[in-house]
Design brief:
Length: 98
Amino acid sequence: MLVIASASLDLLIGDPTWAPHPVQLMGKLINLVRPQVEVWAKNKQWALTIGGIFLTSIVVLISGFSGWIIERIAFKQQLLASYIGWIILIVAMASTIA
């Protein structure tokens, strides 16, 4: 039900122009960390692989933690019988649809 509501909201209004898309934020993080990984790796294939695994892990962990925090905030203390919590989750999920 949440996925259908989120997809419908995304289809109706799309992404707001005032807020960056989560994928843009991930790209900025990657662009910030990647040069440091490349300097550390010094064109060694094994080091580039380890750096890529590290960078992927960082992006996935931050993304997962962000989603978990949004969910915790949305349902903290049964926020208005969780109606506002559901709305927060639907809007957050709609913003992640590419």
